[in-house]
Amino acid sequence: MATFVWPVRVYHEDTDGAGVVYYANYLKFMERARTEWLRARGFEQDALLRDRQLMFAVRRLEMDYYRPARFNDRLNVVSQVAHAGGASLTFAQTVQRADSAELLCSARVKVACLDAGSFLACRMPRDLMREMVGDA
Fold it and tell me: Chunked in runs of 10, what are the mean pLDDT values of the chain (136 residues)?
């Protein structure tokens, strides 16, 4: 499946007392990249909620850290759907230096499709799945 790259710059607020990106902020970068991935496919999360009563929530996360990023670094968050299930998408995501593609961290993030009224997992409508990841 297609790879999506979203650029990000490290701001002072992203760093900890040692001047490196605080580990939890990589999760924020990845969350924003998944939102932009969805947007690039023509979907806004507020419209999915309003029009289809669907929302997405992280179900599972596994992450490895390799190298630190620092203030003002330019990074790329690379996202790809690794697996599409009936009620979930699993993303393979990495954060890399924009200038060298040096790998800083990697994650597998499973996102569940939820019915907004009950907060229970539900199958993604076939047309939505097809528009997001191709034939499913």
Answer: 93 95 98 96 94 97 98 97 95 98 98 97 91 73
Q: What are phi and psi of 9, to 5 degrees?
A: -110, 140
Q: What is the DSSP string of 92-130?
A: EEEEEETTT--EEEEEEEEEEEEETTT--B-PPPHHHHH
Using CA atoms, how far apart are residues 135 and 27, in angstroms rounded to an integer? Answer: 29
| Tokens describing residue 69 | 């990023």
Edge-to-edge strand order for the sheet containing 88-97?
A: 3-9, 74-84, 88-97, 103-115, 54-65
Cβ atoms 83, 39 nearer than 8 A: no
Q: Tell me which CATH code domain 3-133 carries.
A: 3.10.129.10
Residues linked to residue 76 through DSSP beta bridges, in sequence order: 7, 96
Structural domain boundaries in the chain: 3-133
Q: In this structure, what DSSP letter does residue 14 have?
A: G
Catalytic machinery residues:
16
